[in-house]
Amino acid sequence: MPKTVDHDKRRAMILDALFAVAARQGLHAVSLRAVAAEAGISLRLVQYYFETKAGLMQAGLNRLERESNDRWIGRLAPPPDAPDTRAALAALFREALPTDPQSRAFHHMWMSYAVLAMTEPDLAGPGLVAGPNRLQTRIAAILADGKEAGMFRADIDVDAEAGALLGLIHGLGTAMLVGQQKPAAALAHLERQLDRLCVTKKPGENPPRAGNQRPA
Amino acid sequence: MPKTVDHDKRRAMILDALFAVAARQGLHAVSLRAVAAEAGISLRLVQYYFETKAGLMQAGLNRLERESNDRWIGRLAPPPDAPDTRAALAALFREALPTDPQSRAFHHMWMSYAVLAMTEPDLAGPGLVAGPNRLQTRIAAILADGKEAGMFRADIDVDAEAGALLGLIHGLGTAMLVGQQKPAAALAHLERQLDRLCVTKKPGENPPRAGNQRPA
DNA sequence: ATTTTTATGATACAAATGTATCACAAAAAG
DNA sequence: CTTTTTGTGATACATTTGTATCATAAAAAT
Fold first, then answer.
1. How far apart are CA B25 and CA B40, in angstroms?
2. Residue B10, nucleotide of least CA–C1' distance
3. Is the pLDDT confidence value at B167 over 60?
4. Which position has the higher pLDDT, B175 or A77?
5. Phi and psi for B99 in degrees, rounded to 5?
6. Distance A2 CA to D25 C1' (A)
7. Residue of B134, B178, B206 to mutate, testing the A interface (most A Cβ within 10 Å of its Cβ)
8. Which residues in B lie closer than 8 A to residue A107 (C-beta atoms)?
């Protein structure tokens, strides 16, 4: 049986199990044995592929970061010929907020690691903020595009606005996770920010919304 | 020695110890023994005053909520005769962001409980969102005052704006905790939102800032 | 074919944790 | 002065956890 095996693929399987346990019972409930059971392997194997628990947790954080990166370049890579920079930002917001279970799990995971990193400096490295930083950079780029195209006001500070928008995304996302904000309201708050940045700012007129709009 | 003792005061002492341990080593490191050691009492006493660990944790959450309430009514109670509703909001923002260690510890604690509540429904009750809801209500009230006084634009939806501002506060606070945002930038983002809400909206002119303004 | 990695299972171990029990001192009640 | 309630210490116990050890099967190298 012990044919020479692909370590990377095996590690990925184990990290899948870690994410599953963390999503179901919280990151604090992640133990070597729980991960092993979830993956259907023996405790020894988890030890074998990630020497220590700290190694496993660190690998989980790395994976979270890589997954975030892949997700974003996969979903929003082709906006260079964006038909509408405002619509592009709105789409990004929809992707960023924890609406579907996958996104909820991601936010949950990120918050869990953020909390851990506050007391365990081993996790506090650049891994946690790399994702948000990339997102902020992307928002700033889209803002710059829209500004140059005359869609956004000329006097906005794209970097500052991107930072604020990212902060708003994070805050609304957390509020949604704990049930303090409803998804629709959160999205509306973000779109209101877009209204502010657009040049033609008639309060009542909502820009054309792509796709299906079912009332309430 | 075992004179009849004030249970409430004793419970408060133990919860102090809980907060100290959580601030130093994280909420996940809170154990009955760690709390007992921090409080300088025996394990048995922690059991005596909070029957179980779940009870202790729940009491910690209740205390966090009460502390938050007390803190806000203490600091911001007297704005009925506010000289400037905009300044009142700016002051509220300064208080809400995790700048000093106390506020950082509070945010840290709240995030830790929020993460726990996502998998332990016993903690998920209204305790977590009561604080944010109160803050949002207060923001909305100040906004309404300023709107009526002609300081804020007449066409703003105070409830919606309050929700967005609270979300921004939370998101920027988290970003500050993980080191992704600097305090000055976070405050600037919030004040930019105030600029937007004010009637006289000249982009360059910052309204008179009360108190000391040291450059950068 | 033999030796040496590579991969995996079974298990042991010390430490920590939540919970429970026994004992006992001091105050209050009778 | 008993007796009962209240408050506190010491300790025991089962469970869980991270880590380490021993054995060994299969493949690769020689």
1. 17
2. D7
3. yes
4. B175
5. -95, -60
6. 7
7. B178
8. none
Q: What is the mean pLDDT of chain B?
A: 90
B174/chain A closest Cα distance in angstroms: 8
**Whole-number pLDDT of residue B5:** 79
Q: Does residue A204 register a pLDDT over 80?
A: no
Question: How big is the A-B interface in CB pairs under 8 Å?
Answer: 134
Integer CA distances (angstroms), A189 to A137, A140, A177, A208, B26, in order? 21, 18, 16, 17, 32
Judged against a pLDDT cut of 70, whether residue A14 lies above it is answered with: yes
CA B82 to chain CA centroid, nearest Å:
22
Residue A214 in this model has a pLDDT that exceeds 60: no
Query: What's the per-residue H, E or C state across A67-115?
Result: HHHHHHHHHHCCCCCCCCHHHHHHHHHHHHCCCCHHHHHHHHHHHHHHH
Q: Do A185 and B163 touch (CB under 8 A)?
A: yes
Where residue A73 falls among pLDDT bands split at 50, 70, 90? confident
Residue B105 is predicted with a pLDDT of 97
Average pLDDT on A155-159 reads 95
Q: How far is the CA of B6 from the C1' of D1 (A)?
A: 28
Which is it for the CA torsion B3, B4, B7, B9, positive or negative? negative
Please indicate whether, in this complex, the C-beta atoms of B25 and A172 are within 8 angstroms of each other: no
